[in-house]
């Protein structure tokens, strides 16, 4: 009988966006792959998919039903490994796996950025810290994706059987890569931009955390000094309309492009000049890694995820305290010194290739999996249970 692994997250798109290579790898090893998450999208490399009504809010009573369904699924399938992601997916799957873990199942949780961290609101610490510390006791391997979260889990003595650091989900550096100056000019024309435009790019959901309003305000302050600057904002979300209104009110509608949901980010990024990031909180932001892989310098807010990637003066600049003037100053430095900007971008590309390319990150994760893949003892415990 084939060994089984269950992947669980709050929504199914999480797996389509980040984990298909891992699911494919398990299929190639002869494993049966199951997914439990909210949503109805079709996923490749998946033998069974369960639409579980997991809610994003920890206070939503719908999560009680989600927990019951998960517990039944996990008990019936006798999984060798349960790997859960996202805060609510991680909470519910670990609680639902309690009895199965006693019977031998191994539970892995990837924290894609703790909601409690340096600079996080006190409320986040009050709500999320005790939950994560308690549930660590139900975890065979806690995977963190940045050094700050890893140190926090170790220093605060989270009682997971082991705590590992894996460098996120990795970037395909063959898909995301620089292009020549000639190709760049052609690409810009194809995308509808001028060759001498100074293109700033940010991809992210329009929500409070991503904080696109800060970038729009910076553009308003720069519109006279850098009339060729264009801010490209890709994504959708609840605050999109507010951001559009803000750009109009500040008189920069012609300099801020709202691109909507895009599937061609790999085509847009290499045609740009700078990657920007304004979020309050990040675990290890894929959007910044993809931009770095394309050879773009980075100007981003100072948070743990950005600090993991951006070394000030070497591949970009970090802005403390969400200071609009500092954003403007850093962008002007790159605009006025294109040679420096190119050097920053080249350094960033090298850093991604060294530490965060998809192959090296997957090898890190595979080493974790292999420690839990021998199911002889697991099968014996299941049968005894």
From TrEMBL:
One term of GO molecular function: glycosyltransferase activity
Ranges of residues in domain Glycosyl transferase family: 184-350
Record InterPro entries: Glyco_trans_1 (IPR001296), Glyco_trans_4-like_N (IPR028098), Glycosyltransferase_grp1 (IPR050194)
Keywords recorded for this protein, A-Z: Glycosyltransferase, Transferase
Superkingdom, natural source: Bacteria
Chain ranges of the Glycosyltransferase subfamily 4-like N-terminal domain: 4-146
Ranges in coiled-coil conformation: none
Enzyme Commission identifier(s): 2.4.-.-
EC category name: transferase
Protein name: Glycosyltransferase EpsD
Native source species: Sutcliffiella tianshenii
């Amino acid at each position: 009988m084939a060994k089984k692994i269950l992947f669980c997250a709050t929504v199914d798109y999480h797996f389509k966006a980040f984990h298909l290579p891992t699911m494919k790898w398990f299929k190639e090893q002869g494993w049966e792959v199951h997914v439990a998450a909210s949503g109805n999208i079709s996923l490749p490399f998946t033998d069974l998919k369960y639409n579980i009504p997991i809610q994003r809010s920890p206070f939503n009573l719908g999560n009680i039903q989600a927990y019951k369904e998960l517990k039944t699924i996990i008990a019936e399938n006798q999984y060798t490994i349960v790997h859960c992601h996202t805060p609510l997916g991680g909470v519910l799957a670990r609680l639902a796996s309690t009895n199965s873990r006693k019977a031998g199942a191994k539970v892995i949780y990837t924290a894609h950025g703790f909601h409690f961290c340096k600079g996080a609101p006190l409320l986040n610490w009050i709500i999320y810290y005790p939950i994560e510390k308690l549930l660590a006791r139900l975890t065979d391997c806690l995977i963190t994706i940045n050094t700050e979260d890893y140190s926090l889990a170790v220093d605060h003595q989270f009682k997971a059987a082991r705590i590992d650091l894996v460098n996120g989900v990795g970037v395909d550096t063959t898909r995301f890569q620089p292009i020549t100056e000639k190709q760049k000019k052609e690409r810009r024309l194809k995308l509808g931009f001028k060759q001498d435009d100074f293109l700033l790019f940010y991809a992210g959901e329009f929500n409070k955390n991503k904080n696109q309003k800060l970038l729009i305000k910076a553009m308003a302050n720069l519109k006279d000094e850098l009339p060729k600057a264009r801010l490209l904002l890709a994504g959708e979300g609840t605050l999109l309309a507010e951001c559009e209104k803000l750009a109009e009110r500040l008189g920069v509608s012609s300099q801020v492009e709202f691109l909507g949901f895009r599937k061609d980010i790999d085509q847009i990024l290499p045609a740009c000049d700078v990657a920007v990031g304004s979020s309050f909180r990040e675990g290890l932001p894929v959007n910044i890694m993809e931009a770095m892989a394309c050879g773009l310098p980075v100007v981003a807010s100072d948070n743990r995820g950005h600090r993991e990637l951006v070394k000030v003066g070497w591949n970009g600049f970090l802005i403390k305290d969400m200071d609009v003037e500092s954003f403007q100053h850093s962008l002007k430095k790159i605009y006025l010194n294109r040679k420096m900007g190119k050097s920053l971008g080249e350094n960033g590309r090298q850093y991604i290739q060294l530490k965060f390319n998809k192959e090296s990150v997957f090898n890190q994760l595979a080493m974790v999996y292999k420690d839990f893949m021998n199911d002889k003892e697991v099968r014996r415990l299941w049968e005894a249970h």
